[in-house]
Amino acid sequence: MSQPWIGAQQGAKAGSERKRDSETRSGLTEPPRTNMCKGLAALPQSCLERAKEIKSKLGVLLQKPENAIDLIIPYPEKTEKKPEKQQKPTPEEAAQWRESLDRVLNNSYGLNAFRSFLQSEFSDENVEFWMSCEDFKKTKDPVKMAAKAKKIYEDFIQAEGPREVNIDHFTKDMTLRNLVKLSPTTFDLAQKRIYALMEKDSFGRFLRSELYQDLLVN
């Protein structure tokens, strides 16, 4: 005759097995896992599609430098120091500005006078671009450099930008390529083109303007 506790143990064991089978079928418990992590096959389909998308975008950026500006991260600029009070030139000093546009742009009073003259003609975007390039070349911090490059591109280079300057397609393409790897010379070619344009066109009108002529007699 079997012992009562043996029968009870066997009954409990059988009941436990029936319960596990029922839970497995109903999804309450998981069957033993097998090793499914076999390289890329273990990734969800959505992850694989996302990886392909990222690879495709990177390829486009490398082939089309016009999209390179999207890689630049904006950075909040600190407030610039107020410029020192400018000293008005003597008539003799102002007369020397006629020698070259460089003399005007490298003199703080002359630069502001030239800028005011172009503003009166509603064509100050050229000198503003030139000034922005000069400021960019003096920037050492890479993050600040990226922020300034982005602003220069969006304001002056980008098609239909708010202050788009008149540069040829070759110069624009070269500038866009330079944006991929920033350096102090990124905008040099475009800056030279705009300088030549101001020298040929605006500078002569400035020298004949009343604003400049007044500096020669006062």
From TrEMBL:
Q: Where is the composition biased (Basic and acidic residues)?
A: 15-24, 77-96
List the residue ranges of the region (Disordered): 1-37, 75-96
Q: Which domain of life is it from?
A: Eukaryota
Q: Has UniProt tagged this entry with the keyword Transmembrane?
A: no
Q: Which of UniProt's keywords are assigned here?
A: Signal transduction inhibitor
Q: Name one Pfam family in it.
A: RGS
Give GO BP annotations, semicolon-separated: negative regulation of signal transduction
The RGS domain extends over: 100-216
**Which PANTHER family does the entry link to?**
REGULATOR OF G PROTEIN SIGNALING, REGULATOR OF G-PROTEIN SIGNALING 5
Please give the name of this protein.
RGS domain-containing protein
Write down the species. Answer: Takifugu bimaculatus
Its organism's taxonomic lineage begins at:
Eukaryota, Metazoa, Chordata, Craniata, Vertebrata
